[in-house]
Amino acid sequence: SQQGEEDPQALSIQEGENATMNCSYKTSINNLQWYRQNSGRGLVHLILIRSNEREKHSGRLRVTLDTSKKSSSLLITASRAADTASYFCATDFAGTYKYIFGTGTRLKVLA
Amino acid sequence: GAGVSQTPSNKVTEKGKYVELRCDPISGHTALYWYRQSLGQGPEFLIYFQGTGAADDSGLPNDRFFAVRPEGSVSTLKIQRTERGDSAVYLCASSLKGHTLHFGNGTRLTVT
Fold first, then answer.
1. Which one of A99, A100, A105, A106 makes the best mutation probe of the B interface by having the most chain B beta carbons within 10 Å?
2. Cα A50 to Cα A72: distance, rounded to the nearest angstrom
3. Counting C-beta atoms within 10 Å of the first and last residue's C-beta, which end of chain B has fewer, N or C?
4. Of B42, B61, B32, B38, nearest to A43 (Cα)?
C-alpha cells in the first residue's frame, strides 16, 4: 500500500520556471524524504526533513513540512531540462525504519 | 566506494518457474530494503532487514515470496511459482542506521 500521495501526478513546465509538487501522508513520522528517479530504475536521494523542521534548502531545492496537515512540498527553482524525472516522497511508517513511498509526480521540463 | 549492486539487471522467466534476485548492499550498511515497482507507480515496500533478521516483512504479497540475508550483507529475494502479475522492477536499497536509502538500479523481472 502507498502511504503518500503526490500531486500533481504530472507536471510540464518551461525551462527556468519553478516546479512545485506536494506530498500528503497518513501516519505520524520521524522524517520525510524526497527522491528522484530517472528512466524507471534506481532512485536518488534528494533531501531529508525531520518532523521538528518546517523548511529545508539544498541548492535549488526547497522542502517544507507541515506535520499538522501531514503534508510536504518540494520546490525546484529555475528548473532545467535535466530536472526531467519522477519525484517521490517517502515517509518512515509510524516512526519505524520502514519507508513507504508515494505515487510520484512526473516532471517534464521543456527546453 | 561501490554502490548497491543488483543482479541480474533483467530476468525473463516462464510462468511457474522459480527465480532468485540478488542484492549487494553498500559495505557496512546495516539496513537493507526490497521494493517492487510497476510502471507508472511508486515503489511498493516488500521487506526490510536490520542485520540478518527481517525487521518487517509485511509487504511480501504472499508466501511465494521470501527473502534472506544470512550474513547481514548480501540479500536474495526468492519468488516461487512465478505469475505474470509478478512482472515488475524489483529495487533494493541499503541504509546506514535506516535513514537515507541508497538504491541499486533494479532487476526488471518479466514473467511470460
1. A99
2. 11
3. N
4. B42
Q: How many CB pairs under 8 A join A and B?
A: 64
Structural contact between residues A6 and A101, judged by C-beta atoms closer than 8 angstroms: no
Q: Is the pLDDT of residue B1 over 70?
A: no
Q: In this model, does residue B34 exceed pLDDT 60?
A: yes
Three cell numbers, residue A107: 516532471
C-alpha cell of B102?
541508497
B91 to A45: CB separation less than 8 angstroms, yes or no: no
Give mean pLDDT, residues B60-64.
96
Q: Does A22 touch chain B (CB under 8 A)?
A: no
Q: How far is CA A80 from CA A20, A109, B45, in A?
A: 14, 6, 31
Tens-place pLDDT, residues A57-87: 999 999 999 999 999 999 999 999 999 999 9
